[in-house]
Amino acid sequence: MPASLTTISTNRFLQGVAASLIVLALAGCSTTTKDRMTTGSVPKLTKPVEEMDATELRSATDRLGQAYDKNPRDPVTGVNYANLLRMNGRDAQALAVMQQVAIANPGDRTVLAAYGKAQAAAGQFQQALDTIGRAQTPDRPDWRLISAQGAILDQMGRASEARQRYRDALDIQPNEPSILSNLGMSYVLTGDLRTAETYLRSAAGQPNADSRVRQNLALVVGLQGRFPEAEQIARRELSPQQADANVAYLRGMLSQQNSWQKLAAKDKTPGAADDSNTN
């Protein structure tokens, strides 16, 4: 295969890894909004969005969309509707919704955080950094927002800055699995798979780690050629249907022109992706 095509495939693979990282990083920013789901007339979700199948996501999105149409200025409705739109892959619409909600609620930190999430999902990384920065307060910094900034910086190719943001977040919330996972995935983006696995195993070993953390670990194990072990991790604690879907996704990620072999080769190069100065 021509080298240019291999490079393109690897770049696409890394973009997929970065997208996985940012989804996990930003998911934690909606905690406050989740707690407000029961207020007012906002439709309640029957289960976490991460556990919904495609039919349930569409149904919940339709219900939140109707509530948003009735009151587009309501921050709770708008934030949750945008979250569901993103889960359905409708990033541009989610961004449009959050832009309107942010205009109507310029001082709401939860709204600003969600607006930054929408901007990042739509590829507007610098704008997302600025928006999330406005949501932060120096006297009471939110570790979720700091970790989200790290994920955005990773998307922008600024790995050292990103890892420092993750470590700042860990200073506030030690051993938080989502932060450790983001830090591990940051090393995937620069090809240091052994360091990545160390952080991801630490993340997966935390009692409050969720399945997304373990799927990231499965990906990194698979990237190193240990697919049976990766599949075992990917199937843990999931229904057969969810496990099959995750394994299929994992196989797809690992089959992109042997991108994991390129990363593994880079990982074995002396001095490759050395970021020890940020530890």
Descriptive account of the structure:
It is a single chain. With 279 residues, this protein is mainly alpha-helical. Helix content is 70%, strand content 0%. The protein contains 15 helices and no strands. Helix 10 runs antiparallel to helix 11. The longest helix has 25 residues. The N terminus and C terminus are likely disordered.
Features:
279 residues, single chain, disordered C terminus, 15 helices, mainly alpha
Q: In percent, how much strand structure appears in the residues?
A: under 5%
Average of pLDDT: 79
Number of DSSP strand runs: 0
- Rg over CA atoms: 19 Å
Low-confidence stretches: 1-10, 26-42, 267-279
Structural class: mainly alpha
Write the layout of secondary structure elements.
Blueprint: H1 3-27, H2 31-35, H3 54-70, H4 75-87, H5 91-104, H6 109-121, H7 125-135, H8 143-155, H9 159-172, H10 177-189, H11 193-204, H12 211-223, H13 227-234, H14 240-254, H15 259-267
Short note summarizing the structure:
70% of the residues lie in helices and 0% in strands.
